[in-house]
UniProtKB/TrEMBL annotation:
SUPFAM superfamilies: Nucleotide-diphospho-sugar transferases (SSF53448). CDD domains: Glyco_tranf_GTA_type. This is Glycosyltransferase family 2 protein. Pfam families: Glycos_transf_2. It comes from the Bacteria. It comes from Streptomyces shaanxiensis. Residues 9-136 form the Glycosyltransferase 2-like domain. InterPro entries: Glyco_trans_2-like, Glycosyltransf_2, Nucleotide-diphossugar_trans.
């Protein structure tokens, strides 16, 4: 690498993913350029030798380094460690158990330079076992600069704030200078939610590119989405952060409705799948759900639940109590 800062920093948080490291690193070898840097953050794995595997395998990858946390901090903190260590003009993320198509990173850099925007979002490929499915970013306007705010609403449709995956895009370093791009330290799950809301509220420009080079592995046993423990309940803190940060927004009246609907959708999902939790955690989930729903006014909750589906509406009504007039 020359003395000039790298064009792109790739931040890869890793935790208990030893068996996936060879494929992840190989995909980055197939994407490397002299002006790219690769930062692996090993978040104190407890069940395998992820750290040792990274030290060995990254010898193949130019301009790479492995940073090891002294104690486990969670995905949000691991990403922040990588951000703090990065020097690239642009930043992107890759989870340690996922991989990239050859040449994808060059295409990503080309897109953000061509559109000259604060960030670019992409599609991705979801991998479940041997099955693969393309998931499109929920914005029909492609390959043109957009106002990020214009992709938050409508309330009752899937929009870009419902597509929070940090690894599905690339971000200009100037966002850091404006106080964006970092994650809320310590969030164990749903860490992307306040992050994506902040980007779409406060950044000046973005674009959506029809790139499908990220392969996102679903159903990984070590993934937090597969584990029914107390860390899952951090989604309450995550959405409370979204609502708190919206309070100062000039369009809070319109945007809060969208955030509340998102919150209710996630609460309902967690309640309907609470069988994976231990009894004490399931009880805590119900208590926190009742408290969160109780902080919403009657009118706000009625509007949030309209059209959400009979099963979810019934569940949320029952947890909160009342709400008999809400249409499913």
């Amino acid at each position: 690498m020359t003395n000039r800062p790298p064009t792109l920093s790739v931040i890869v948080p890793c935790y208990n993913i030893e068996s996936y490291v060879p494929e992840t690193v190989t995909s980055l070898v197939n994407n490397e350029r002299d002006d790219f840097e690769f930062i692996f953050v090993e978040d104190r794995s407890t069940k395998d030798k992820t750290y040792e595997a990274l030290l060995t395998l990254t010898k193949r990858l130019k301009n790479s380094r492995v940073i090891r946390h002294e104690e486990n901090g969670g995905l949000a903190t691991a990403r922040n460690t990588g951000i703090d260590a990065s020097e690239g003009r642009y930043l992107t993320f890759l989870d340690g158990d996922d991989w990239l198509a050859p040449g994808y990173l060059a295409d990503l850099v080309d897109a953000i330079e061509r559109f000259d925007v604060d960030f670019v979002r992409t599609d991705h490929v979801q991998v479940t076992g041997i099955e693969r499915a393309v998931h499109r970013a929920p914005e029909g306007r492609r390959h043109t600069p957009l106002d990020p705010r214009s992709s938050i609403l409508p309330v009752d449709d899937t929009t870009m704030v419902d597509y929070p995956y940090a690894w599905a895009g690339v971000y200009h370093r100037r966002l850091l200078d404006k106080g964006m791009l970092r994650f809320h330290d310590g969030l164990k799950t749903a860490e992307d939610r306040p992050w994506i809301w902040d980007l779409h509220r406060r950044a000046d420009s973005y674009a959506v590119a029809s790139l499908r080079g990220v392969f996102y592995r679903r159903g990984v046993a070590s993934s937090l989405t597969q584990i029914g423990d107390v860390r899952q309940l951090d989604f309450f803190r995550s959405f409370d952060l979204v609502l708190a940060e919206l309070a100062e927004d000039p369009e809070v009246g319109r945007l809060r409705k969208k955030a509340l609907r998102n919150y209710c959708v996630v609460i309902a999902h967690q309640l309907l799948s609470r069988g994976r939790f231990e009894r004490s955690i399931a009880a805590r989930l119900k208590q926190m759900a009742a408290e969160a729903l109780g902080r919403m006014s009657e009118d706000e909750l009625e509007e949030a639940l309209v059209g959400m589906g009979e099963e979810r509406v019934y569940m949320l009504r029952r947890i909160r109590g009342g709400m008999k007039g809400v249409a499913a």
